[in-house]
Design goal:
8 helices; globular
């Protein structure tokens, strides 16, 4: 059964289907009559919101009189940095932009579903999977950059050479399972949260929806934090000389 188009998805399909089909053609996919989907339109909306927020902070940046939005971003920066140190990723300033962006991006995608007529793009498996694949490439890249290709690949062989035949398949499965773990955890929790919230919104009018909307906020915040902290752990393992 085809998904019901949100107002933004309908707007994009009505006025810019050719633009989307051009990208599909570059990727080798056939053109579609209505190529835009809800998860793509919602993800683009979140990116646009983030762009506007960052632009506003940049325009009003002040050391003497920081605004409320600047305080929020500074608190987020401090929270992400503190979490990195708690994980054991010391002197990891080079990774902080990725983790901060990951946390804020996932959090906004999780929470945008609370706005009437909008949906959380993380309730579609393609979005968490894309984030998981990006994190997989990111931590492997930095592991190779930090240790060198040969030393990094030696981690897959285990502590002694004769265990390599057993350890290499296990390590490969373990690394690939991280993609599954990251994507399915985020997708399953957000899909369930959205369905529960929508169900109670359709049944009741005031008290129960408020409770479940607050629960949705908590789950969205928790899942963004879990995704970020797992990414930090993977980076820490990949770049650790002791490992």
């Amino acid at each position: 059964m085809p998904e019901q188009e949100l107002w933004l998805t309908k707007l994009l399909n009505d006025h810019s289907a050719g633009f989307a089909n051009a990208f599909l053609g570059l990727a080798g996919f056939p053109a579609q009559q209505r190529p835009w989907t809800n998860w793509i339109s919602m993800e683009l909306l979140v990116i646009a919101i983030l762009f506007v927020l960052v632009l506003l902070v940049r325009m009003r940046l002040s050391v003497d009189k920081p605004g409320a939005l600047q305080h929020v971003f500074e608190l987020t920066y401090g929270f992400v940095k503190m979490t990195m140190e708690e994980v054991g990723l010391h002197h990891g300033e080079r990774y902080l932009p990725y983790f901060g962006t990951l946390f804020i991006f996932i959090l906004l995608m999780n929470l945008i579903g609370l706005v009437p007529s909008l949906e959380s793009p993380t309730m579609y498996i393609m979005v968490p999977l894309g984030l998981a694949l990006a994190t997989f490439v990111y931590y492997n890249y930095h592991g190779i950059r930090e240790l060198g290709l040969v030393a990094y690949l030696k981690q897959f062989m285990g502590p002694v050479a004769w265990l390599a035949v057993l350890m290499i398949p296990l390590e490969l499965i373990s690394h690939l399972a991280r993609i599954l773990s990251l994507s399915v955890r985020l997708y399953a929790n957000m899909f369930a949260g959205d369905q529960v919230t929508l169900a109670f919104l359709s049944l009741t009018k005031l008290v129960a929806p408020v409770i479940f909307m607050l629960l949705h906020v908590f789950v969205g915040l928790l899942q963004a934090y879990i995704f970020m902290i797992l990414a930090m752990i993977y980076i820490n393992i990949a770049t650790s000389h002791e490992h």
